[in-house]
Amino acid sequence: MSEKRLNETLSTETEKQVVRPILMAEFDFDTNVERAWTGVGELVWDSKTFYGTGNLGKVSKIEETTEMKATGASFQLSAIPAELIEDILAAPIQGHSAKMWFALMDEDFQNIIDEPHLIHDGRLDTSELIDTGDTATITLNSETRFRDLERPRTKRYTDAEQQKRYPGDKGLEYVPSMQDKEITLGAPKE
Length: 190
Fold this sequence. Notes:
It is a single chain. Strand 8 and strand 9 (136-143) form a beta hairpin. The protein has helices spanning 8-14, 82-90, 159-165, 175-178; strands at residues 21-28, 33-37, 42-45, 48-52, 57-59, 72-78, 97-105, 112-131, 136-143. It is mostly beta strands. A nine-stranded mixed sheet has the order 3-4-2-1-7-8-9-6-5, with helices on one face. It is built from four helices and nine strands. 15% of the residues are buried.
């Protein structure tokens, strides 16, 4: 979970007459990590290179709530190279990291002012491709970790389940044979 308040430097910068905000995103596609930002060209932060999307990217509203509930975000990228689309669609993305930061740039749009502020830290859920022939647009849907609270937990006290978690363990080996067994406690009945 991210700290919701901007640090002092970013807060002061947002009060100036001219503000240069950007968004930076990082997506883990299992075989590789892709990074994008809302400007043009390459941007290096924290030894990571983010590639500019200009006006070719969109982000849904990122909801913040005081309730303990799952929220999500959608990220849309247009004019994507064919090889990247193939990588995204082939990779098992579900459950992999999706992060977004808010940052401010200096007057020359060359450097980030202070540390970017993490505004979304979730997990990728689904992807949707819209290919019009000339261009391709992909939408990545992400959800927060609170979504896990809504998933059913189906664990059983069986030998098979125990072997998945602790291979070679014999603790539940006789559970199936004991299910219908009649056990007498205390003195036998006369």
